[in-house]
Amino acid sequence: xxxxRLREKMVSTQIEARGIHDQRVLxxxxxxxxxxxxxxxxxxxxxxxxxxxxxEGQTISQPYIVAExxxxxxxxxxxxxxxxxxxxxxxxxxxxxxxxxxxxxxRVRQLFIEVxxxxxxxxxxxxxxxxxxxxxxxxxxxxxxxxxxxxxxPKVPEVLVExxxxxxxxxxxVGNRFSQTLLKIVKHEDGIHQVDLGGCRFVKLVGDHGWxxx
Length: 214
Ligand code: SAH
What we know:
Elements: H1 2-16, H2 23-31, E1 52-55, E2 58-60, H3 63-72, E3 80-84, H4 90-98, E4 101-106, H5 109-121, E5 127-131, E6 144-149, H6 158-162, E7 164-175, E8 180-188, E9 191-200
Parallel strand pairs: 3-4, 3-6, 4-5, 6-7
Antiparallel strand pairs: 1-2, 7-8, 8-9
Helix pairs in contact: 1-2, 1-3, 2-4
């Protein structure tokens, strides 16, 4: 009950009040129990307007940024979505509420194991997870209607654009190690269309087409 109330308040004051209008996104954020995606000691802070540590030097993103990125993906019920940087699995669960299937990749094994358990416990059976370098995408399952990267990249990995369907959307933070710009890239027959969604700060995307060291 307590967490449900905190969640309602989070959505109205942090998400709706800042202009997120996609009703399906708002509904998913009212539903997913964010406090279960952080350690027990941090549960009371889970609905605050900030990111939180999740171990292994990584963080669960601020609620608003999750909402903003999810809305930017323009998801439809039958979409197949690729997520790179599973982390806590909270964003994964939001996506799983909205689409047919979510493919998610995490490079840190310990996080991958914990998330799999939590997603199973919450019955998110439409999530396929693997532990590897997400900067390579998931070629066996491509192309995707949408791809979301939740770690900061030095540049847009071309291979991810290749794994988008025509009309597909890629949302990715790009910049240096300290600050990035959130980019939305839409793939068209004659090239890509890019929109700048504003500044943000993510942990590093580490891999073949990302930063070379953690
Ligand atoms: N959406 C997540 C964000 C977690 S932080 C959440 O809100 O919980 C970003 C995650 O990306 C970290 O867990 C980090 O380990 C992971 N990551 C970094 N580089 C990666 C790569 N190349 N492939 C897959 N995951 C990566």
